[in-house]
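[agent] plan:
  1. take the single chain provided in the ticket
  2. run structure prediction with default settings
  3. attach structure tokens to the ticket
  4. add a short note for the reviewer (M.T.)
[agent] executing step 1
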Amino acid sequence: EQMEVLVSCFLRPFKMAASSKKPPCSHEDVNSIFLNSETVLFLHQIFLKGLTSRMESWPTLVLGDLFDMLLPMLSIYQEYVRNHHYSLQVLTECKQSPPFAALLARLENKPACQGRSLETFLTYPMHQVPRYII
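[agent] step 2 finished; step 3 output follows
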């Protein structure tokens, strides 16, 4: 759910804003902040769909094949995690721009965000894979 909010409430609006006549940020900034968030969301959705179908077969629960499928995709998560610090640096720099800060404040005030900041949503994917393993 948090990844869906990150992509729909932040990434897509910032992409659109970067394409506007007076962009509050560049496409490069958007790519640096969000990197492969859409791909990570897609992987989460695939894993969740597989996990949900397994839960329907409870109490016989076999998850090994889901993790076999997830393992080759860990490089995508790894890239996201490695970029996280840089992502937050770029975000901090962009916040110095009043138009960017105003857009960010509007986006963070959406009901779907439940009062949470963009930084919070950018951090969620880093905790998801360890949760799957536990």
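[agent] step 4 note for reviewer: The longest helix spans residues 74-94.
[agent] ticket updated
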